């Protein structure tokens, strides 16, 4: 049930929360029976997306997470989403409107919503907020992000073994630390099996522009790349690889359909279990502000099926890396880490802390091009 | 037999005020059909779109917050449009205003102990206006000096402005404490527009917009300059005979447009946003073009049109939240509403008659 | 110098030219259509919206029927209907053209997203490039001249055709007369509105073709707002071309070329911020416009004098 918005009024009081929590425990104990008991007062979960759900990339995957919540909790939750919310002044309004409209849990799924989320959270202390990829928290604001760089190390290993030209093309969206970190992890994986290989990066200054992504990918191919990787949302680079008979990796979603021969594997964003867990925590009354970095070990980052054409030794190497990273015995950005100028940034045996990863703004050796600044 | 448009001898004063109601009626009918077809209660949907945002202090505050940059940009554009100066780069001018004003705020926050005094906001206003004017001066110069069409130059400079802002916040103006994310530090208290109503986001930027309405009204309706703009706009040659300089109107139109768009940029970053990052405007400069014409290039009309346009955005959000409709549907509906509003203007100059003769398209009737 | 690097160099240049031409094609298609509408005196700022509706119509038809020709046709018809809506509003009901065009874009973004809901993440066999044995394999010229897809050739042919019609035919004379001075054209007895309708519809069909190029050939997929502002660039190109069809094509190639070159510069590791490099296509367009606009008299003769003005036959 969705009610007419009553801003300012604390629709979700502590009482209803406690009731929800009690019902939650009941559900856990008795299964189906409790669903009806809670149906009267479902927990409203709101999602704010930066792009359209139809981007088949970032926002699309978050919406899959929303659907997972609906599938898991049925009538016990009611989900709402607002898509294509600009990261300027509008974000705070949408967040506040969701909060005042009785949503008990709100996911803000873009970095640019960070300060707006904090402002809204101050206004609505009883509402739980979850901000994706940010670093500012509060009592009612958690942050979460995925260690996509773990997956990028694995595709780096595959790329290193599949390339003949030893030039890998990398289509980057915008030079933020998350993307730079991914490029570095990819390069470390690449050079762990093929020290000769280098990575060429082209920035398209957009997360989501199929035409531009295509042009960047074509340019990389023209400059000798025979394997493409991307940190942009559309399947355009995969299509370019397919056209030219080269290899590529999917981003965010399994993009095999757009180039069955070319698509070697994809790093899949899987928010489902995190979203289900956090929703359950609110229902149970156990929600607390946390900072979650999920990775291969938690399933937030997953690899899609390997292409059948991959030779066995490549699959074996990729799997070995995946298992080691998931087990925590291999860190994709462990030392020795040398930057482009040849300076050792991290000695052998050292492992970077999350603070260093969070703000990474320099390329490792083996990447051509610069981090723009 | 059929409907026929018949020209009126002179424009109908009544219809000037009545056409919005005609458009509203058409919108209700078409909207009801649309929502019913999608399986939603039409009354609830229309209520959510048009009324719900206006029923609370929060909603009203947000309405003015959203309308402020639209009205500011549209007022400036109207000055140019009246003189046939086609500035469609208000978006870029807005960004430059934000960059100039935001740059000053960042500089003050970094170098002045305490982050600057009461002088800072007025200085930021001036910087914002100057920034917008500077960006608009480029198409003005290229048009008057080299005859380069301002539509193209102002539009292309919008993309350049966006990239310039991107360059600054990815690079030199990046928050040193911000883990290298592309955004500046938060502005200090002294660089933020004070709120008008506690508990809402309504800030004194809304008063700037009202002042700009009054200012452009005087300029356009009561000053000789406004008369010159109108003459040059309607008949450039006649303007020339009267000794009015076309170049002057180009400069005036673009500088007014740029200055007010720059002020809008300042209002956004010093108001609801409070810092610089890559997405400070969701296309206000483009939407303002619609606002300018919906308001019939009249300052008061623009004020109303800006508020209405803002309402369609708020209503769109509310439809998504309340009825779970995708953004696609709210965009469709927003487009329909605008079509009705724009088309109903025909009644000002024409009346609808039942024609006994076979209907003739009026274009071929003469 | 041995042979291999030379062949590499040729292949690289060929790839650059092919990429440039393909990047320019959707811009050129949409701009040529808009040029005809503007020549008749109608300014339709809804190109972006019409392109999107064309793109989704093409894609949806392709997925449903698997017929490429039908998909292209569907794109043209769908965008033509959008243009018809624009025509009814601005020509018959005399609504303001600038505002109506912008509203058409808002409407088109919404409509295309609405239609496209069920077509996200579906692959199709898109429109591939030609391959003519013998000819396509010629170094450099082969891929550039004989290795493109049919819509690329269509864009060149249509530009030529539009140029011929506008400047070498009676129909073109009438179109230009309507755009220059609708009152006079009306007085002579030309059906001003009818001609404008046809030109606006042509503009719509071409925008649809441009959309189809994106969703069928360039990046065969449907994702929301996939035109990413190309409709706006097309509008700018008409102005850039000073309303001359041949220059539209040149402008599109200039814009596409500078875009591709700046990507090449990035890939080669040029130590300049990608934000600054990305400004180049826009700055280059302004610069060239300034150079070609300096002759005041010539440009004035090209801009349709009645552009954007409402035609009221009775007044």
Explain what you see.
The complex is a heterotrimer of chains A (373), B (366) and C (315). Chain A contains 12 helices and 15 strands. Chain A is an alpha/beta fold and 373 residues long. In chain A, helix 1 runs antiparallel to helix 2 (33-39) and helix 8 (210-222) runs parallel beside helix 9 (236-244). A two-stranded antiparallel ribbon of chain B has the order 1-2. Chain C is mainly α. The longest helix of chain C has 37 residues, at 3-39. At the A-B interface, strand 2 and helix 4 of A face helix 3, helix 6, helix 10 and helix 12 of B.
Topology, please?
The complex is a heterotrimer of chains A (373), B (366) and C (315).
Chain A: H1 14-30, H2 33-39, E1 43-48, H3 58-73, E2 77-82, H4 90-100, E3 103-108, H5 114-123, E4 128-132, E5 141-146, H6 148-162, E6 167-172, H7 177-193, E7 198-203, H8 210-222, E8 227-231, H9 236-244, E9 247-252, E10 263-269, H10 272-284, E11 291-294, E12 301-303, H11 312-327, E13 337-338, E14 344-346, H12 354-358, E15 367-368
Parallel strand pairs in A: 1-2, 1-3, 3-4, 4-5, 5-11, 6-7, 6-8, 7-15, 8-9, 9-10
Antiparallel strand pairs in A: 10-12, 13-14
Chain B: E1 2-7, H1 13-37, H2 42-51, H3 57-82, H4 90-111, H5 120-146, H6 150-170, H7 205-222, H8 224-234, H9 236-241, H10 246-273, H11 284-294, H12 299-323, H13 327-344, H14 346-349, E2 350-355
Antiparallel strand pairs in B: 1-2
Helix pairs in contact in B: 1-2, 1-13, 2-12, 3-7, 3-8, 3-10, 3-11, 3-12, 4-5, 4-6, 4-10, 4-11, 5-6, 5-10, 7-8, 7-12, 11-12, 12-13
Chain C: H1 3-39, H2 47-65, H3 68-92, H4 97-116, H5 141-146, H6 150-168, H7 170-180, H8 182-188, H9 192-218, H10 230-240, H11 245-267, H12 274-278, H13 280-293, H14 296-302
Helix pairs in contact in C: 1-6, 1-9, 1-10, 1-11, 2-3, 2-4, 2-9, 2-10, 3-4, 3-9, 6-7, 6-11, 7-8, 10-11, 11-13
């Amino acid at each position: 049930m969705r009610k007419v918005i009553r801003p300012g009024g604390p629709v979700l009081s502590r009482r209803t929360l406690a009731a929800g929590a009690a019902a939650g425990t009941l559900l856990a104990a008795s299964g189906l029976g409790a669903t009806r008991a809670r149906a009267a007062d479902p927990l409203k979960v709101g999602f704010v997306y930066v792009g359209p759900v139809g981007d088949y990339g970032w926002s699309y995957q978050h919406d899959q997470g929303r659907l997972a919540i609906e599938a898991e909790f049925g009538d016990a939750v009611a989900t709402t989403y607002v898509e294509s919310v600009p990261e300027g002044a509008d974000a705070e309004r949408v967040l506040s409107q969701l909060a005042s409209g009785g949503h008990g849990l709100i996911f803000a799924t873009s970095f640019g919503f960070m300060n707006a989320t904090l402002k809204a959270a101050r206004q609505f202390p009883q509402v739980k907020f979850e901000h994706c990829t940010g670093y500012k928290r509060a009592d009612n604001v958690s942050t979460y992000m995925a260690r996509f760089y773990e997956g990028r190390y694995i595709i780096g290993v595959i790329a290193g073994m599949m390339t003949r030209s030893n030039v890998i093309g990398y289509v980057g969206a915008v030079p933020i630390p998350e993307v730079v970190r991914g490029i570095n992890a990819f390069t470390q994986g690449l050079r762990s099996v093929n020290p000769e290989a280098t990575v060429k990066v082209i920035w398209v200054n957009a997360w989501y522009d199929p035409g531009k992504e295509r042009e960047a990918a074509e340019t990389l191919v023209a400059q000798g790349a025979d394997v493409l990787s991307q940190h942009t949302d559309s399947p355009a680079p995969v299509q370019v690889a397919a056209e030219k008979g080269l290899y590529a990796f999917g981003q965010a979603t399994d993009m095999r359909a757009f180039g069955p021969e070319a698509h070697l594997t994809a790093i899949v964003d899987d928010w489902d279990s995190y979203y289900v867990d956090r929703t359950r925590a609110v229902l149970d009354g156990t929600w607390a502000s946390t900072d979650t970095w999920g990775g291969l070990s938690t399933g937030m980052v997953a690899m899609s099926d390997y292409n059948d054409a991959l030779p066995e030794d490549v699959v074996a190497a990729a799997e070995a890396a995946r298992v080691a990273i998931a087990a925590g015995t291999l860190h994709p950005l462990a030392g020795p880490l040398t930057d482009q100028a040849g300076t050792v940034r991290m000695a052998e045996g050292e492992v970077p802390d999350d603070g260093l990863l969070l703000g990474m703004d320099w390329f490792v050796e083996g990447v051509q091009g610069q981090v723009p600044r | 037999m059929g409907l026929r448009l018949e020209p009126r001898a002179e424009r109908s004063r009544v219809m000037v005020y009545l056409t919005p109601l005609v458009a509203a009626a058409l919108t209700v009918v078409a909207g009801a059909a649309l929502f019913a077809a999608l399986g939603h209660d039409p009354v609830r949907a229309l209520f959510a779109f048009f009324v719900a945002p206006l029923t609370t202090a929060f909603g009203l505050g947000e309405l003015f917050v959203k309308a402020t940059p639209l009205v500011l940009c549209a007022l400036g554009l109207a000055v140019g449009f009246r003189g046939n100066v086609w500035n469609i780069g208000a978006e870029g001018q807005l960004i430059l205003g934000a960059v100039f004003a935001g740059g000053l705020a960042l500089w003050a926050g970094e170098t002045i102990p305490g982050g600057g005094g009461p002088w800072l906001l007025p200085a930021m206003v001036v910087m914002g206006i100057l920034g917008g004017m500077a960006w608009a001066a480029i198409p003005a110069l290229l048009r008057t000096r080299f005859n380069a069409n301002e539509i193209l130059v102002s539009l292309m400079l919008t993309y350049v402005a966006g990239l310039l802002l991107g360059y600054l916040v990815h690079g030199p103006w990046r928050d040193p404490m911000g883990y290298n994310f592309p955004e500046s530090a938060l502005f200090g208290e002294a660089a933020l527009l004070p709120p008008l109503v506690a508990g809402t986001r309504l800030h004194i930027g809304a008063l700037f917009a009202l002042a700009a309405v009054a200012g452009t009204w005087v300029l356009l309706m009561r000053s000789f300059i406004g008369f010159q703009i109108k003459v040059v706009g309607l008949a450039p040659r006649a303007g020339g005979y009267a000794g009015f300089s076309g170049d002057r109107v180009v400069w005036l139109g673009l500088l007014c447009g740029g200055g007010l768009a720059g002020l809008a940029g300042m209002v956004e970053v010093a108001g609801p946003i409070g810092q610089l990052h890559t997405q400070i405007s969701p296309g206000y400069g483009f939407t303002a073009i619609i606002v300018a014409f919906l308001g019939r290039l009249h300052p008061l009309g623009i004020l109303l049109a800006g508020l209405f346009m803002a309402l369609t955005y708020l209503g769109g959000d509310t439809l998504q939240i309340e009825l779970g409709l995708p953004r696609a549907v709210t965009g469709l509906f927003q487009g329909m509403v605008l079509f009705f509003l724009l088309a109903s203007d025909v009644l000002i100059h024409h009346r609808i008659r039942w024609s006994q003769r076979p209907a003739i398209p009026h274009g071929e009737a003469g | 110098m041995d042979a291999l690097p030379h062949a590499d160099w040729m292949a690289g240049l060929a790839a650059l030219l092919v990429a440039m031409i393909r990047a320019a094609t959707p811009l050129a298609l949409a701009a040529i259509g808009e040029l005809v509408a503007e020549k008749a005196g109608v300014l339709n700022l809804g190109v972006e919206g019409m392109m999107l509706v064309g793109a989704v119509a093409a894609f949806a038809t392709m997925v449903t029927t698997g017929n490429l020709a039908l998909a292209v046709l569907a794109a043209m018809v769908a965008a033509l209907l959008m243009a018809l809506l624009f025509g009814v509003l601005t020509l018959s009901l005399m609504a303001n053209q600038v505002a109506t065009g912008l509203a058409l874009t808002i409407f088109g973004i919404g409509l295309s997203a609405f239609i496209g809901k069920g077509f996200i993440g579906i692959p199709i066999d898109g429109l591939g490039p030609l391959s003519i044995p013998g000819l396509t394999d010629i170094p450099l010229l082969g891929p550039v001249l004989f290795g493109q897809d049919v819509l690329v050739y269509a864009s060149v042919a249509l530009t030529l055709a539009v140029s011929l019609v506008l400047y070498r035919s009676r129909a073109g004379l009438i179109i230009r007369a309507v755009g220059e001075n609708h009152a006079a054209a009306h007085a002579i007895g030309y059906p001003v509105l009818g001609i404008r309708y046809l030109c606006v519809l042509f503009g719509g069909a071409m925008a649809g073709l441009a959309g189809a190029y994106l969703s069928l050939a360039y990046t065969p997929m449907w994702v929301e707002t996939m035109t990413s502002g190309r409709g706006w660039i097309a509008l700018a190109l008409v102005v850039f071309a000073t309303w001359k069809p041949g220059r539209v094509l040149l402008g599109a190639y200039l814009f596409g070329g500078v875009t591709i070159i700046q990507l090449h510069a990035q890939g080669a590791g040029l130590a300049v911020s990608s934000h600054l490099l990305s400004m180049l296509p826009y700055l280059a367009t302004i610069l060239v416009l300034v150079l070609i606009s300096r002759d005041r008299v010539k440009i004035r003769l090209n801009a349709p004098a009645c552009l954007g003005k409402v035609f009221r036959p009775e007044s």
